[in-house]
Amino acid sequence: MGFYGTFVNGHSSSYSVGADVLTLSDKNQHENFFLQQLFVTRGAWWIDGKWSATLHSALLHENSYEYRDAGFLGADSLFFFPSNNIYFGGGGTMFHYSPTTTLSLNGTISYSNAEIYSKLFTLKYSAVFPFGITEIFSIDACGLQTTPLLVSFRNQITYAFTTVFIHGKVMWGRRRFFFDEASLTLFSQREQQNASYAFGIGWLSSKSFSLLASVTVEKFDAYSVAYVSLGAKYNSVFR
Q1: Closest CA to 181 of 113, 109, 115, 126
Q2: To which H or E segment does residue 140 belong?
Q3: Which of 140, 126, 144, 147 is nearest to 196 (CA)?
Q4: In CATH, what number is assigned to the domain containing residue 67?
Protein backbone atom coordinates (compact mmCIF):
# COMPACT_ATOMS: atom_id res chain seq x y z
CA MET A 1 0.00 0.00 0.00
CA GLY A 2 1.39 3.38 -0.93
CA PHE A 3 0.76 7.08 -1.46
CA TYR A 4 2.52 9.37 -3.93
CA GLY A 5 2.04 13.03 -4.71
CA THR A 6 3.60 15.48 -7.19
CA PHE A 7 3.49 19.26 -6.90
CA VAL A 8 4.20 21.31 -10.04
CA ASN A 9 5.44 24.92 -9.88
CA GLY A 10 4.47 26.21 -13.32
CA HIS A 11 7.07 25.30 -15.96
CA SER A 12 10.09 25.83 -13.69
CA SER A 13 10.09 22.92 -11.21
CA SER A 14 8.21 19.95 -9.74
CA TYR A 15 8.45 18.05 -6.46
CA SER A 16 7.35 14.50 -5.61
CA VAL A 17 7.02 12.65 -2.30
CA GLY A 18 5.85 9.13 -1.56
CA ALA A 19 5.62 6.36 1.00
CA ASP A 20 5.04 2.63 0.56
CA VAL A 21 4.51 -0.16 3.11
CA LEU A 22 4.79 -3.84 2.19
CA THR A 23 4.10 -6.80 4.50
CA LEU A 24 4.17 -10.56 3.90
CA SER A 25 2.43 -12.95 6.25
CA ASP A 26 2.43 -16.66 6.98
CA LYS A 27 -1.17 -17.91 6.88
CA ASN A 28 -0.30 -21.11 8.73
CA GLN A 29 1.32 -19.34 11.67
CA HIS A 30 -0.83 -16.17 11.45
CA GLU A 31 2.10 -13.79 11.64
CA ASN A 32 3.99 -11.32 9.49
CA PHE A 33 7.51 -12.37 8.57
CA PHE A 34 8.44 -9.38 6.40
CA LEU A 35 7.93 -5.62 6.76
CA GLN A 36 9.32 -3.07 4.31
CA GLN A 37 8.83 0.70 4.55
CA LEU A 38 9.97 2.97 1.71
CA PHE A 39 10.00 6.80 1.77
CA VAL A 40 10.95 8.69 -1.40
CA THR A 41 11.42 12.27 -2.65
CA ARG A 42 12.24 13.75 -6.05
CA GLY A 43 12.75 17.24 -7.45
CA ALA A 44 13.08 18.46 -11.04
CA TRP A 45 14.24 21.91 -12.18
CA TRP A 46 14.48 23.62 -15.55
CA ILE A 47 18.08 24.87 -15.92
CA ASP A 48 18.33 26.82 -19.15
CA GLY A 49 17.56 26.40 -22.82
CA LYS A 50 16.89 22.71 -23.46
CA TRP A 51 18.34 21.32 -20.20
CA SER A 52 16.71 20.25 -16.95
CA ALA A 53 18.04 18.47 -13.85
CA THR A 54 16.66 16.11 -11.19
CA LEU A 55 17.62 14.98 -7.68
CA HIS A 56 16.07 12.07 -5.80
CA SER A 57 16.47 10.33 -2.45
CA ALA A 58 14.90 7.43 -0.58
CA LEU A 59 14.99 5.59 2.73
CA LEU A 60 14.29 1.86 2.90
CA HIS A 61 13.68 0.21 6.28
CA GLU A 62 13.49 -3.60 6.49
CA ASN A 63 12.57 -5.31 9.73
CA SER A 64 14.28 -8.50 10.90
CA TYR A 65 12.74 -11.53 9.24
CA GLU A 66 13.47 -15.05 8.16
CA TYR A 67 12.76 -15.52 4.48
CA ARG A 68 10.96 -18.85 4.75
CA ASP A 69 9.39 -20.98 2.07
CA ALA A 70 6.49 -18.88 0.74
CA GLY A 71 5.33 -21.34 -1.90
CA PHE A 72 7.72 -20.31 -4.64
CA LEU A 73 11.09 -20.96 -2.96
CA GLY A 74 12.62 -24.32 -2.19
CA ALA A 75 13.20 -25.52 1.36
CA ASP A 76 16.92 -24.83 0.97
CA SER A 77 16.27 -21.15 0.16
CA LEU A 78 15.89 -19.93 3.72
CA PHE A 79 17.96 -16.94 4.73
CA PHE A 80 17.88 -14.05 7.19
CA PHE A 81 18.13 -10.27 6.80
CA PRO A 82 18.83 -8.20 9.94
CA SER A 83 16.84 -5.06 10.62
CA ASN A 84 18.44 -2.47 8.39
CA ASN A 85 18.19 1.01 6.87
CA ILE A 86 19.34 1.65 3.30
CA TYR A 87 19.72 5.23 2.09
CA PHE A 88 19.42 6.17 -1.59
CA GLY A 89 20.67 9.30 -3.31
CA GLY A 90 21.11 10.34 -6.90
CA GLY A 91 20.28 12.67 -9.73
CA GLY A 92 20.59 13.27 -13.40
CA THR A 93 20.15 15.61 -16.32
CA MET A 94 17.74 15.67 -19.25
CA PHE A 95 18.24 17.14 -22.71
CA HIS A 96 15.04 18.26 -24.45
CA TYR A 97 15.97 17.67 -28.07
CA SER A 98 12.55 18.89 -29.20
CA PRO A 99 9.15 19.50 -27.58
CA THR A 100 8.38 15.80 -28.11
CA THR A 101 11.79 14.10 -27.67
CA THR A 102 14.10 13.88 -24.64
CA LEU A 103 17.30 12.07 -23.67
CA SER A 104 18.32 11.67 -20.01
CA LEU A 105 21.08 10.15 -17.88
CA ASN A 106 20.50 9.29 -14.20
CA GLY A 107 22.50 7.63 -11.44
CA THR A 108 21.56 6.23 -8.02
CA ILE A 109 23.82 5.00 -5.21
CA SER A 110 22.55 3.42 -2.00
CA TYR A 111 24.39 3.21 1.33
CA SER A 112 24.07 0.80 4.25
CA ASN A 113 26.33 0.64 7.33
CA ALA A 114 28.55 3.38 5.87
CA GLU A 115 29.26 1.31 2.74
CA ILE A 116 27.98 1.47 -0.82
CA TYR A 117 25.22 -1.13 -1.09
CA SER A 118 24.10 -0.77 -4.72
CA LYS A 119 24.78 1.24 -7.88
CA LEU A 120 22.46 2.07 -10.78
CA PHE A 121 22.94 4.06 -14.00
CA THR A 122 20.13 4.67 -16.52
CA LEU A 123 20.18 6.09 -20.04
CA LYS A 124 16.67 6.90 -21.24
CA TYR A 125 15.09 8.07 -24.50
CA SER A 126 11.46 9.18 -24.76
CA ALA A 127 9.40 10.39 -27.69
CA VAL A 128 5.81 11.42 -28.37
CA PHE A 129 4.39 10.37 -31.74
CA PRO A 130 1.17 11.34 -33.54
CA PHE A 131 -2.17 9.72 -32.64
CA GLY A 132 -1.43 9.76 -28.88
CA ILE A 133 1.49 7.29 -28.85
CA THR A 134 4.38 7.72 -26.40
CA GLU A 135 7.47 5.48 -26.20
CA ILE A 136 10.13 5.33 -23.45
CA PHE A 137 13.24 3.17 -23.97
CA SER A 138 15.85 2.70 -21.20
CA ILE A 139 19.19 0.97 -20.72
CA ASP A 140 20.03 0.16 -17.07
CA ALA A 141 23.28 -0.98 -15.46
CA CYS A 142 22.87 -2.00 -11.79
CA GLY A 143 24.62 -4.14 -9.21
CA LEU A 144 25.04 -4.89 -5.50
CA GLN A 145 28.17 -5.10 -3.37
CA THR A 146 28.82 -8.73 -4.28
CA THR A 147 27.80 -8.64 -7.94
CA PRO A 148 29.16 -6.90 -11.05
CA LEU A 149 27.01 -4.42 -12.95
CA LEU A 150 24.10 -6.20 -14.64
CA VAL A 151 22.62 -4.75 -17.85
CA SER A 152 18.91 -4.72 -18.71
CA PHE A 153 16.64 -2.99 -21.22
CA ARG A 154 13.16 -1.53 -20.77
CA ASN A 155 10.58 -0.37 -23.28
CA GLN A 156 7.18 1.18 -22.59
CA ILE A 157 4.54 2.20 -25.13
CA THR A 158 1.42 4.18 -24.15
CA TYR A 159 -1.58 4.83 -26.38
CA ALA A 160 -3.95 7.57 -25.19
CA PHE A 161 -7.54 7.85 -26.40
CA THR A 162 -9.89 10.65 -25.38
CA THR A 163 -10.74 9.27 -21.93
CA VAL A 164 -8.90 5.91 -21.93
CA PHE A 165 -5.20 5.10 -22.18
CA ILE A 166 -3.42 1.75 -22.34
CA HIS A 167 0.24 0.87 -21.91
CA GLY A 168 2.52 -2.10 -22.27
CA LYS A 169 5.90 -2.56 -20.57
CA VAL A 170 8.65 -5.10 -21.11
CA MET A 171 12.05 -5.61 -19.47
CA TRP A 172 14.68 -8.11 -20.54
CA GLY A 173 18.25 -8.66 -19.43
CA ARG A 174 19.52 -9.00 -15.83
CA ARG A 175 19.01 -6.81 -12.77
CA ARG A 176 18.92 -6.92 -8.95
CA PHE A 177 17.59 -4.53 -6.31
CA PHE A 178 16.40 -2.05 -8.92
CA PHE A 179 15.24 1.51 -8.12
CA ASP A 180 13.15 3.30 -10.76
CA GLU A 181 13.78 6.99 -10.10
CA ALA A 182 11.08 8.13 -12.53
CA SER A 183 8.21 6.27 -10.81
CA LEU A 184 9.96 6.21 -7.38
CA THR A 185 9.48 2.44 -7.24
CA LEU A 186 11.90 -0.03 -5.65
CA PHE A 187 12.20 -3.67 -6.80
CA SER A 188 13.83 -4.87 -3.58
CA GLN A 189 14.37 -8.56 -4.44
CA ARG A 190 17.99 -9.65 -4.09
CA GLU A 191 17.50 -12.51 -6.55
CA GLN A 192 18.43 -11.90 -10.18
CA GLN A 193 15.51 -10.79 -12.33
CA ASN A 194 15.57 -11.78 -15.99
CA ALA A 195 12.34 -10.42 -17.48
CA SER A 196 9.22 -8.41 -16.71
CA TYR A 197 5.96 -7.94 -18.62
CA ALA A 198 3.12 -5.56 -17.78
CA PHE A 199 -0.13 -4.37 -19.32
CA GLY A 200 -2.22 -1.55 -17.90
CA ILE A 201 -5.30 0.49 -18.62
CA GLY A 202 -6.51 3.82 -17.25
CA TRP A 203 -9.79 5.70 -17.39
CA LEU A 204 -10.00 9.50 -17.14
CA SER A 205 -13.37 10.08 -15.51
CA SER A 206 -12.68 13.83 -15.39
CA LYS A 207 -9.82 16.29 -15.82
CA SER A 208 -8.90 15.74 -12.16
CA PHE A 209 -9.58 12.06 -11.46
CA SER A 210 -8.50 8.80 -13.11
CA LEU A 211 -8.56 5.08 -12.28
CA LEU A 212 -5.65 2.74 -13.06
CA ALA A 213 -5.32 -1.05 -13.30
CA SER A 214 -2.43 -3.26 -14.43
CA VAL A 215 -1.27 -6.88 -14.59
CA THR A 216 2.46 -7.63 -14.18
CA VAL A 217 4.57 -10.78 -14.46
CA GLU A 218 8.10 -10.75 -12.96
CA LYS A 219 10.52 -13.57 -13.86
CA PHE A 220 13.48 -14.44 -11.61
CA ASP A 221 16.11 -17.20 -11.71
CA ALA A 222 14.17 -19.57 -9.44
CA TYR A 223 10.54 -18.43 -9.69
CA SER A 224 7.98 -16.09 -11.28
CA VAL A 225 5.49 -13.73 -9.65
CA ALA A 226 2.25 -12.40 -11.18
CA TYR A 227 0.15 -9.68 -9.56
CA VAL A 228 -2.63 -7.18 -10.21
CA SER A 229 -2.40 -3.51 -9.21
CA LEU A 230 -5.26 -1.04 -8.75
CA GLY A 231 -4.94 2.68 -8.12
CA ALA A 232 -6.50 6.11 -8.32
CA LYS A 233 -5.00 9.45 -9.31
CA TYR A 234 -6.27 12.92 -8.43
CA ASN A 235 -4.99 16.20 -9.88
CA SER A 236 -5.61 19.51 -8.20
CA VAL A 237 -4.46 23.07 -8.95
CA PHE A 238 -3.57 25.31 -6.01
CA ARG A 239 -3.63 29.06 -6.58
Answers
A1: 109
A2: strand 133-144
A3: 140
A4: 2.40.160.60
